[in-house]
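Re: folding output
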Amino acid sequence: MKIFIYSLFIFQSCSYSQDANSSIEHEKISMQSERYIHDDIDLLRKVSEKSELGLFQKTSDSLISKWTGKEEFQIIVQEVCNNLSSKGFEPRNERHELLKKYSSIGLFDIDNLTLNHSFSFLNHFTYANVVLNWSENQNFEKERAILTEKWLKNWQILETDKEVDFNFNDLPELNVPPPERANSISGVDPKEIEDPELRKEYELAIEKNRIKTENFNYQKTLVDLENMYRPQLISYFKQNYAINEAKVVEDLLNSYAIDDRLNTEILAALN
């Protein structure tokens, strides 16, 4: 199962709408939405600099409500969590209770949750739990089981979708060249090519490059996520499972087909 990952395209593929007016209108809406989300991110950062937890919570709740149901929702929740995690808000425990609250909002937004956001929210949630002495909570084992399942499911998706022998030297085209017989320049609008057969050939090449670009970006992001969160996954088990639970951990890792090397590293990390 391939989960769409929100990220800026490393390469831009060429695509053209059949309806120019519709394409322009869509572009206007996208640019307007992008401007609004950046304005709200700037607002969060400015408020966080004041180090007033109550004000930051009020601003965060307002913006989360504003973006609920929109595709940018995860970006706003991510920004809230990042600021809570990195700024010195006091009281410390209240700050981490809020970090748990907002990261769980992100984690359980099933309709919009992306793999990289899921990993990030898990990391925030886990960190907050450690600070709050989560193991002393009476619901510790029940909550731990849910969190462990999410960590391992994420990792399973990542490893399943990652193409081990993917060639990152085989780059997509920045501008797709038209057929040589079209006597035109790379990246030209297909509608500028008069010959219908050559135009069709060019449109197919553009679509093929779009798919290649999408997969290239996806594979690059998977590698980045693996490098970033492999240590965090090991740390999660080290912090939340004891050495006398090694058999339980081993069975969990085997049930999600975790690779042997990572399996060994996790088991070795248990205290």
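--- second protein (sequence, then structure) ---
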Amino acid sequence: MAKVLISIPYARCLKTFLDTPIYRELRARHSVTIVSYLADCPGFAESYGGPAVGFQPGAMIHGRLRRAAYALFESHRVMGFLFRWRKRHTWLPWHALLNTSGNVRRRRPWVRAALWLISVIGDRVRMDEVLKSLLGGWIFQDKEVDHLFRTESPDVLVCTSHGSEQEAILCHLARKYGVATILAPNTLDAFLFHGFLAHRYDRICAAGPKDRWLLEHLHGYPPDRIVDLGVISNRYYSSLASEERDGGLRQRLRIGSDARILYYLSVAKAYYTDLLPALDHLLDAIKNGRLADTVIVIRAAPGDDVDVLRRRYGEDPRMRIQIAGPKSVGMVDCPDFTKDVDAEHVEFVETLRDSAVVVMSATTSAFLHAATFGIPTIANVAELSAYPTWSVSPRRNVAWDGMGMFAMGLPVARTLDQLVDKVAERFADPNKDEAVWERILEQWDYQNERYVDDFLDVVARS
């Protein structure tokens, strides 16, 4: 029995690791300690505990000076990587800043010059590693976590997010105490936009051939230390879909058996301000018969967005509002752990499988889930029309197509009329994009049905 530390720095790591069969088997076979800010949330221990499971509050950097030093070498790590691959695989946001309201404004000239200098040094010298070797012992001081390593003597550290502050501390201590490290990242773009590898991991789990290629060619990671695991959440959702359910989704949503469901995924809407015109346009198309016999189920993040949607569409018989849980949107406060661990995911999977078409606000990882179940999916970038096409604007980011999804044929609507047309086309021919899904899954998901056993083998050999 190995002693395994599992880092959960964000709520979204629950659906990509802790809720999945991988964790359930780890918990059954090994001694596990979960390190997370969620450890003190009511119900967390009951949901994820067990006879050999312990909990440790999340690790964080203390003190302004330490945090400033950490921010400095993280800037070198991320900007240096983007600079190195700027002409082929990435782009640089030197000349603008995206603030929290989604507005884009130009940086001052001296800030742009400083970022350029940080990028060049980060690329040429790997200053992040130099600073980490010199200052890591001072920056990553956390007495409680250090005590955990000394007293528990863990064999393996499992990281579930590439580049988080918590995992910077844990990986520093893992190196200090000779603990093996495994990275199973919670996002598909972990090796493309998140900078150089934040730690010299002993093993890294790749979602698909594209991940492996990025690790080998952009990060110089040894091929024999890559684990071809596949998209963990896809296998998890597939297992949920195979279980017997009550089949009462339409009854709960008050949707007739003959109506088509258009599933609108807008959980990442914080910067996408043109959602309401898109919904209005789709509702008009339903009303005038272009998309007849259709009900829109919009999945939105909790908060102000839901209130706006309820005031505008609450009484509309063609609209249903589904509130995504914190595991889906990655909220940082405490989720409700008194519910069944699978409940939030079951709702999503049931709605997804019963949908005729899925529409995403720009692009999210949901297109891989939809592709797994063969559901036609459209990326609505018309929502981004209010933004400029330069720098870190969401419109610029999506148009760049860094992951190559549009190039592989992912349907994209750039105007509202085009959105209606593409939905109608897929109502008429649900298999229209079958070859597209095969290409995307072939590149981005190994679809490894042995993923649990393969991960456990890596833990046992570490």
